[in-house]
């Protein structure tokens, strides 16, 4: 008696394919491909979409889950500022910044370094005494280079100088300007470049969304820095908007004129606040503004990405700094997406 033939490989493969096809046809909705995240959608346009974060939030698991899954980039909201990184003269502490960088690495996110030179959130040891230029120069250089060296290879950008101008386009009278003169900006950029030649070096400010005296001051400064061979490579537009002040005019044209100077542009701290309580109509306007702002970036090739200044109203900085205002971010206090989230998705092609 011939032995019964074992089922041929062919038959096995065929029946597996039939089962698979049948299985797929009957697949429940839950097996549908997962919707693309904001980060993934932006990537299709060769841009990133990111969110700032802050260390106290790292104990909130639900928050971290969304931060790590939805966004392709993050910026430490406070961890890399001077008060945090050099709490005593010459004493550096990278604990908080390292925590953000480790999270970003684990979730394949880019990191923007924020910020090396700023008039605000300085340590008391720096603000509570007077300085001569000869004293302050080496302190500034050492700070910039120690921090930039520590994060070398870990950040794509540095906001080297933050908020250098007043609204009328004159230089802000920070301790750095008053002590060292306007040349502190070029020096800071050169020192940062020495420490991390691969990070793109940015100047960053608010109320520079459209064309006006403050953005004009940056336009002139960046043009001059470029002419002098100073390593400036990006203009950061914070984008802290408020419904009551109206949507800025010429956002796209403003981005484009910086791009035409030969620098890239990034939207670095976008949020859109409103007077509380938020109404459905205010949230609808907010959604349109988010979409219009993101669209402007999509339409300028050298606009490299958009970062929102955290993603949930639960952790927004707005209520503490602008009393009576808030609801500024695309997710509400319970981490549920708001109309703004859906509007951003749509404009990104989701
Ligand atoms: C804000 C932080 O979000 C707050 O937590 C902190 O108390 C104050 O600073 N422009 C900037 C950011 O460049 O560094 C600021 O961040 C918001 C305005």
UniProtKB/TrEMBL annotation:
It catalyses: Endohydrolysis of (1->4)-beta-D-xylosidic linkages in xylans. GO terms for molecular function: endo-1,4-beta-xylanase activity. Its EC number is 3.2.1.8. SMART domains: Glyco_10. It is an enzyme of class 3 (hydrolase). PROSITE patterns: GH10_1, GH10_2. Keywords: Carbohydrate metabolism, Glycosidase, Hydrolase, Polysaccharide degradation, Secreted, Signal, Xylan degradation. GO terms for cellular component: extracellular region. The keyword Lyase does not apply. InterPro entries: GH (IPR017853), GH10 (IPR044846), GH10_AS (IPR031158), GH10_dom (IPR001000). Residues 52-347 form the GH10 domain. Residues 1-31 form the signal peptide. The active site is at residue 269. Pfam families: Glyco_hydro_10. GO terms for biological process: xylan catabolic process. It is found in: Secreted. The keyword Hydrolase applies. It comes from the Bacteria. Belongs to the glycosyl hydrolase 10 (cellulase F) family. This is Beta-xylanase.
């Amino acid at each position: 008696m011939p032995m019964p033939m074992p089922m041929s490989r062919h038959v096995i493969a065929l029946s597996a394919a039939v089962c698979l096809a049948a299985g797929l046809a009957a697949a429940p909705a839950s097996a549908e491909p997962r919707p693309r995240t904001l980060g993934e959608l932006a990537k299709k346009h060769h841009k990133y979409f990111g969110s700032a974060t802050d260390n106290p939030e790292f104990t909130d698991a639900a928050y971290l889950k969304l931060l790590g899954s939805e966004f392709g980039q993050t910026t430490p909201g406070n961890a890399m500022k001077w008060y945090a990184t050099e709490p005593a003269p010459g004493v550096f502490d990278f604990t908080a910044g390292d925590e953000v960088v480790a999270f970003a690495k684990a979730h394949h996110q880019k990191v923007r370094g924020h910020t090396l030179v700023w008039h605000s959130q300085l340590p008391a040891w720096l603000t509570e005494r007077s300085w001569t230029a000869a004293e302050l120069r080496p302190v500034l250089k050492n700070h910039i280079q120690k921090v930039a060296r520590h994060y070398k290879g870990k950040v794509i950008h540095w906001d080297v100088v933050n908020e250098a101008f007043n609204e009328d386009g004159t230089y802000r009278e920070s301790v750095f300007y008053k002590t060292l003169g306007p040349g502190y900006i070029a020096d800071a950029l050169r020192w940062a470049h020495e420490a991390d030649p691969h990070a793109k070096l940015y100047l960053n400010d608010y109320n520079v969304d459209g064309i006006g005296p403050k953005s004009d001051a940056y336009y002139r400064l960046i043009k001059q820095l470029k002419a002098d061979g100073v390593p400036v490579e990006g203009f950061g537009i914070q984008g802290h908007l408020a419904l009551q002040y109206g949507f800025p005019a010429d956002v796209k044209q403003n981005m484009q004129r910086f791009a035409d100077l030969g620098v890239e542009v990034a939207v670095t701290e976008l949020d859109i606040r409103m007077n509380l309580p938020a109404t459905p109509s205010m949230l609808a306007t907010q959604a349109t503004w988010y979409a219009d702002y993101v669209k402007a970036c999509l339409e300028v090739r050298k606009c490299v990405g958009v970062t929102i200044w955290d993603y949930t109203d639960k952790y927004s900085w707005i209520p503490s700094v602008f009393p009576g205002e808030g609801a500024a971010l695309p997710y509400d206090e319970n981490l549920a997406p708001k109309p703004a989230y859906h509007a951003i998705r749509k404009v990104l092609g989701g």
